């Protein structure tokens, strides 16, 4: 009898030790690095909260070492029914336990949203929307809505002025309304009392400054010319002259790649054609950069009224105060176009 009890006790001890060893091994796997990646990658849970899609991302992007173990644990704690949208970081040090905790709590890593060098509204929507969960179509719809534009103090043609090109840190699953509110806060932060005072002395409103800055940036590829070009257009505005800015004609025609502006282009009937309509166009022809806006606010004082691209195609311009000098500059440039068969 004693012998049987000893045998039973040995069996129980063996089972306990086996369970302890199994549990210890499982816990070790659970808390050890679980992903075979060399640098930080990200997995996304969209509004659809597709669990199978997440599993595919963990395999293809995060290189998970044991997808079955992750799946069993996720199912055990009911994660597929508790998914939270977001962008989640995975690196070579993170464990299965750590990732699941982040996924359940919705503990994300913020992303850096960057946009610059953008012309049209649909380009802006595509650029920003592709970086955030709400997507390009939703942003385009908002920017085309006159009620939404008015809510932030703009119109459909001026809403691009709301966006100050920069890099902004935010969560990938930010709502589109919260995103637009953030952009408005950044806009108000950008337009400091000092900048507003400079705009008032020109005098232009912040929106008008942005519109002029968009023309300046399209007019020259050389940033050190920005203040000179800005000063030239401000001179023309003050004298009541037509701006006659070639970039606005390209915008009106819908072709920014034009190398040569012809008389037929100048005849296009559009409020953006500054050869036909006096003053600034009704909206920006691109999203102006901070540098472009500040160049207008800090424009160079001079007497120039005319400008023409240099005949060396350097991207720089020849400036003139009187028409006769401008015509000589223009003749040299036209001759260079002809020599190079640029039509």
- Largest β-sheet summary: 2 strands, antiparallel
Judged by helices, strands and strand pairing, the structural class is: mainly alpha
With strands numbered from the N-terminus, the spatial order across the biggest sheet is: 1-2
The number of distinct structural domains comes to 3
Beta-strand segment tally:
6
Classify the helix fraction into a percent range.
40-55%
Count of helical segments?
A: 15
As a whole number of angstroms, the C-alpha radius of gyration is 31 Å
Poorly predicted runs of 5 or more residues: 6-26
Give the averaged pLDDT, no decimals.
Answer: 90
Elements, N to C (H/E): HEHHEHEHHHEHHHHHHHEEH
User: How much of the sequence is in beta strands?
Assistant: 5-15%
The separation of the N and C termini measures 109 Å
Shape: elongated
Tell me what the structure shows.
There is one protein chain. The protein is mostly helical. The protein has 3 domains: 29-105, no CATH class; 111-190, no CATH class; 193-302, no CATH class. The chain is built from 15 helices and 6 strands. α5 packs antiparallel against α6 (135-143), α10 (206-219) packs across α11 (226-239) and α10 crosses α14 (290-297).
């Amino acid at each position: 009898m004693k012998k049987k009890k000893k045998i039973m006790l040995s069996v129980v001890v063996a089972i306990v030790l086996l369970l302890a060893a199994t549990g210890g091994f499982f816990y070790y796997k659970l808390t050890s690095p679980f992903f075979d990646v060399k640098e930080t990658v990200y997995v996304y849970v969209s509004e659809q909260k597709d669990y199978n899609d997440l599993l595919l991302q963990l395999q293809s992007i995060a290189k998970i070492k044991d997808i079955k173990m992750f799946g069993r644990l996720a199912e055990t704690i009911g994660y597929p029914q508790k998914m939270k949208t977001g962008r989640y970081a995975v690196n070579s040090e993170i464990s299965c336990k750590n990732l699941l905790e982040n996924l359940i709590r919705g503990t994300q890593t913020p992303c850096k949203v960057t946009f610059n060098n953008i012309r049209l509204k649909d380009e802006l929507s595509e650029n920003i929307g592709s970086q955030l969960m709400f997507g390009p179509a939703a942003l385009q719809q908002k920017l085309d809505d006159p009620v939404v534009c008015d809510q932030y103090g703009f119109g459909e043609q001026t809403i691009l002025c709301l966006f100050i090109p920069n890099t902004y840190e935010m969560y990938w699953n930010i709502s589109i309304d919260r995103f637009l509110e953030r952009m408005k806060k950044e806009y108000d932060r950008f337009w400091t009392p000092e900048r507003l005072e400079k705009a008032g002395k020109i005098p232009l409103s912040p929106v008008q400054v942005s519109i002029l800055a968009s023309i300046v940036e399209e007019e020259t590829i050389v940033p050190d010319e920005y203040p000179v070009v800005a000063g030239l257009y401000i001179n023309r505005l003050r004298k009541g002259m037509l701006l006659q800015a070639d970039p606005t004609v390209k915008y009106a025609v819908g072709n920014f790649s034009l190398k040569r502006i012809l008389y037929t282009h100048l005849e296009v009937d559009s409020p953006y054609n500054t050869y036909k309509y006096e003053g600034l166009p009704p909206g920006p022809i691109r999203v102006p950069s901070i540098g472009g806006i500040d160049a207008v606010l800090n424009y160079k004082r001079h007497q120039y009224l005319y400008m023409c691209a240099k005949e060396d195609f350097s991207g720089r311009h020849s400036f003139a105060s009187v028409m006769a000098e401008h015509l000589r500059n223009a003749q040299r440039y036209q001759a260079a176009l002809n020599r190079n068969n640029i039509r």
